[in-house]
Please model this.
Amino acid sequence: MASPPTRAIPAAAAKAAAATIRIDSHLDGGEERSLADDVLDGLTRPFKELPPKHFYDARGAELFDRICELPEYYPTRTERSILEQRAVEIAEATGAVELVELGSGTAAKTRVLLDALHAAGTLKRYVPLDVTEAMVRDCARELTAEYPGLRVHGVIGDFERHLDQVPEADGPRIVAFLGGTIGNFPPGSRRRFLRQIARLLGPQDHLLMGTDLVKDPGVLEAAYDDSAGVTAEFNRNVLRVLNRELEADFDPEDFEHVALFDREHEWIEMRLRARRELTHTIRRLDLEVRFEAGEISAKFTPERLTGDLAAAGLEIATWMTDSEELFALTLSRRSDR
Ligand SMILES: C[S@@+](CC[C@H](N)C(=O)[O-])C[C@H]1O[C@@H](n2cnc3c(N)ncnc32)[C@H](O)[C@@H]1O
Model:
């Protein structure tokens, strides 16, 4: 018996979506091990630290979205405004048929670039890679609806472990790494990571990277310690992740959020400082910790950025900044192309 038309329409839509969306997941339980390993490594050091990827559970991702809207948090709106001014030029200079985005999140700013590539008529595929599964799936659904003809190949994974899962390019491509996320890497692993990214680039390809610049420490510290306390809540949320995933016994309210600019290293340290002498147990790891932990967000001078890119075999083709030089977007190529 023939299906009634009301059933045929969703089936056709589902078939069309299946043809345009592909999602590969590489996390498959390994994440829990990776959290346990990172916590064991990070919280038994003299300077305790945790990799930022563990901050982005569903609540962390939602809090990060709120941070991006805060008046003190200039990076998001500044990077967006640079993109708005230069996206057409980026599309022309790269002729990109595909955009790979590392740590793609909600791809909010990415739409500015996708608009320009779509209007130029070159764009065929978008490849978002993020550790947060829901973000990759939602953004694939939304973008295929917003850009007719666009294929999305989502990669759910860790950009430090799964760059080799990024599919082969079918023409010139842009690898985008936005939001100043490169600043979360300490100097040695930053250069190693840039070298891995460089391996994704063919002679016609470009890296488009957003980098936060060194500036007045007052402006920087306010951006990481907003008056509404959203960044403090984002920072403390990692303790809830440890309680849930590793049976730890932290009370997040026992910890205060501190954001300090370290002038020597030119990075912001976001720390969680215990308000009193405390010892905690992480049951799944059989670990006791006396706790003060943090992460860094490095800020760049043009010289440092050029040096880090050069060490990875990359050279800047276009340097783009705002009128106050708060934030930079750079378009780089392989220097041996
Ligand atoms: C600071 S947000 C930036 C989001 C977006 N690109 C922007 O510019 O607004 C970092 C994003 O990277 C993702 N992320 C962090 N560490 C990651 C990792 N190791 N592998 C993959 N994604 C990661 C987070 O889930 C989050 O979506």
